[in-house]
Design a protein that fits this description.
The chain is α+β, with helices and mostly antiparallel strands and 177 residues long. Strands 1, 2, 5, 9, 11 and 12 form a six-stranded mixed beta sheet that branches. The protein has a four-stranded antiparallel beta sheet with strand order 4-3-8-10, with no helix packed on it. Strands 6-7 form a two-stranded antiparallel ribbon. β6 and β7 form a beta hairpin. It starts with a helix and ends in a 19-residue tail after the last strand.
Amino acid sequence: MAARVSMMSVVGWMMVVIMLGCSLKAIEATTDETEKFHVGGIVKCQNCSGDWNEWAEGGRPIEGARVSITCLDEGKGLAFYNSDATDKYGKFNMVVVKVIHGKNLNPKDCIVRLVSCPDKSCNIPTDFGQGNTGVKLRQPSVMFRDKTEYDVGSFFYTTPTCDVNPDDDTKSYQGSK
């Protein structure tokens, strides 16, 4: 009887080890960095009341702003869309799987752009950094081991006060009337 209990314990433990090994392989397969790429950047509020350096390089991060990525497949049809909200530092990070429904995605066929901003005092999208029209992914900013990352830089929203073209105050910098 003792030998039977002992044998059942060994078999039980072996099953646990096999299942754990299969689970780890499944986790490893879903986190394989060669199967995806990362896209990140930052969203800030651009204030026109300061000097050029403060306006161009400064800005406070916006939490909760949404940024999207749209990718086309080889036939130029919509293959992937996702969006991400920025954290308290204004940063976003989206992960894109390279094969969707059997179709290969080329990062160069993806565009990242501003979607929305919860900050009522600074919610007018600008094209400073091409956030309004969108940035096409070009060269990865990081290629380390199997990980590929694209940094699209900074996107900016501005205040209604700053959204006036000094040469023609009936049009904004974004081309709206």
